[in-house]
Amino acid sequence: xxxxxxxxxxxxxxxxxxxxxxxxxxxxxxxxxxxxxxxxxxxxxxxxxxxxxxxxxxxxxxxxxxxxxxxxxxxxxxxxxxxxxxxxxxxxxxxxxxxxxxxxxxxxxxxxxxxxxxxxxxxxxxxxxxxxxxxxxxxxxxxxxxxxxxxxxxxxxxxxxxxxxxxxxxxxxxxxxxxxxxxxxxxxxxxxxxxxxxxxxxxxxxxxxxxxxxxxxxxxxxxxxxxxxxxxxxxxxxxxxxxxxxxxxxxxxxxxxxxxxxxxxxxxxxxxxxxxxxxxxxxxxxxxxxxxxxxxxxxxxxxxxxxxxxxxxxxxxxxxxxxxxxxxxxxxxxxxxxxxxxxxx
Amino acid sequence: xxxxxxxxxxxxxxxxxxxxxxxxxxxxxxxxxxxxxxxxxxxxxxxxxxxxxxxxxxxxxxxxxxxxxxxxxxxxxxxxxxxxxxxxxxxxxxxxxxxxxxxxxxxxxxxxxxxxxxxxxxxxxxxxxxxxxxxxxxxxxxxxxxxxxxxxxxxxxxxxxxxxxxxxxxxxxxxxxxxxxxxxxxxxxxxxxxxxxxxxxxxxxxxxxxxxxxxxxxxxxxxxxxxxxxxxxxxxxxxxxxxxxxxxxxxxxxxxxxxxxxxxxxxxxxxx
Amino acid sequence: xxxxxxxxxxxxxxxxxxxxxxxxxxxxxxxxxxxxxxxxxxxxxxxxxxxxxxxxxxxxxxxxxxxxxxxxxxxxxxxxxxxxxxxxxxxxxxxxxxxxxxxxxxxxxxxxxxxxxxxxxxxxxxxxxxxxxxxxxxxxxxxxxxxxxxxxxxxxxxxxxxxxxxxxxxxxxxxxxxxxxxxxxxxxxxxxxxxxxxxxxxxxxxxxxxxxxxxxxxxxxxxxxxxxxxxxxxxxxxxxxxxxxxxxxxxxxxxxxxxxxxxxxxxxxxxxxxxxxxxxxxxxxxxxxxxxxx
Lengths: 345, 272, 294
Known about the structure:
Number of helices of chain B: 11
Largest sheet of chain B: 6 strands, mixed
Number of strands of chain B: 10
Order of helices and strands of chain B: HEEEHEEHEHHHEHEHEEHHH
Oligomer: heterotrimer
Strand content of chain C: under 5%
Radius of gyration of chain C: 23 Å
Distance between the termini of chain C: 42 Å
Largest sheet of chain C: none
Distance between the termini of chain B: 43 Å
Order of helices and strands of chain C: HHHHHHHHHHH
Helix content of chain B: 25-40%
Number of helices of chain C: 11
Structural class of chain B: alpha/beta
Shape of chain B: globular
Strand order of the largest sheet of chain B: 6-7-8-3-9-10
Strand content of chain B: 15-25%
């Protein structure tokens, strides 16, 4: 093994170990939320409106009468082997519900994140290039609007404009239900657009893309704002570095200075926030999915919250936190790929 | 332009002539240089404390001072051609090819996320070489400064300071530069490496007739390397002259002050 | 100095113009923030019908479009929307202020302890912070409120629980950078107590970044608390909370645009005000520092 590879392997190993530690902490925290904080955890777990004897039975069945330490151990084991409890609302295992909703959410959040990056990157670059000028002020204003946007307000407004008034886009859902009968969609990934592409299902592809536009736009506002802000700050910081003076002194154009030599080293902090943005977008998608009736985790969570479905809420919380930890890990690896200073320490 | 035709002194041609150069930030005049010449095959030291305007003068020579927000007036002639007030596009053609700069921290002067060879070859291609030729020229240039061309595959943080500085100088030579602006190029290096870089600069002067504007606050280095030394204070030229005169028998009290601030100078001279 | 002063005695309006020109975004944010504060403080005086912010309903006046008597129209219970939007500023600002005060009270001392003492204390506190930071604030707050009872009070506590780790992390960074300095070592050598060193040297250094972060987060908390009310887990009717007003107005929105538009715009402008102020302050105080949070 080359020394470079060895140090990379050590680096990845260290990241995975700390990630694992955080995962355990996350599970323990959800345990505290669901079993320690509520005055009657059993009631929270099986629902408030059940007869006393059923509640008592459940308390014994679920082991809620045993010492907390034993409960915590059972809980950790349950999470590890996939026993995440049963949803009070759907009466199905929480993990099954999550598995059904996850692809839909990833499709939506992924699209929004991509949109945010595609728009936010050049915006930030433009702002840094003309710092203090009109483009800079405009970009910063737009990015502040992006991070300050209440999605649950933007969403109904877009629905009003593009569906009610202009009749350009569908109001909600993933694709036209009429297509259930005319062009049946075979599920490969659970992501409609992707499935339609794989199955060469033209009508569903068109319909699902049209349905994706509005929720993705709404959800992209926040990532776009954060990315533009970060790219601007990061590029400006890099511009003070000697290597920028060096390439200028070699005769490179400003376009090359900004677009290549300043952007690439400036991307690292941007990638760091991408994981964070991903997690925020997963939370924001609760609101967006509820409004656009998008059958993902967000809609599931919003419904769970409204019916005080504790097992479902805890399950969702756990999944999002795990996604965040995994996202962070992915970010670390991506950074190591971009920045040789990290990978070759 | 007539100034270019008439040689400055001692029968040598002036490679760089600075006349009435004023660099301002708003109303604040940071540098005022009346006359400063750099001849062919000469190493001119530019001394002075930090904040004396040495580096800003260097950036002005490359036409980069305006990028830092400064206003530049007066004249800077490179081999007779006026640099002040030229278009950015024209200046870009000059930079690297006819004037190159080496920096104080050589490792930081290379982009941390590009292999050094990548920057070197991109610069060579920018100034007209083909892809294949840029590879060849880069390798040649490395051997020219006694470095293994394999080092081009490394990232800057994998090079020592001395190696990185050699790569920077090699790049300048590969581009055909005959005027090197060196801004404290050895002050971040340790003493033995510093001596190697100084030796390399001398060699370039003697063998290729490269002119070097060598900026430093370190008078012992200036004494060891330079043909002539100019001393700046508060943006103005205090004294210019052959190194022996200026540094061993300074006429200006300020130069004496600077010398007195360097207790090691006499010791090192004794050691030489 | 005094001569320079005599030479140019700029009028206060000229100063204001220069300020707007140099920091247009900070100026815009401060103006918005000031308006917001005036709305909150002056709600009883500015409102056409102060009692509409409370339990009063006018069933004969429901869903009236904007007019001179109701500039923002009325809602589904006939309440004057302008009144409720004005009073909403009170609700949102006090929730946000309370959440961040709590978050700072918990986070800053923990962060300073971690950074100042280092070692195991640091490890323990920062691992805990990492765990909390793995949850997006909205999500953690939702989960907490769901097991408590939905109300403004639970939402406030839940949001504080979600926000404190950011301040712990920030304060730790500041404290550890100061703790290593020679100054602190010499203070210790002189026999100064740790408390004294912390209050004299560590805390003052941390104030600036914390102020910037608080102004940014005020916007964030306003957004998230509105979102919680929108989902039914925050304020409950008749509290004039903007998020709740958007949520209630949604069923009537397609035919009565004003019920959602005005309270939502208030959320956007309030969040913008603090984000602009925070951004502007950061730019003015230290353009190099980059905060990562919302």
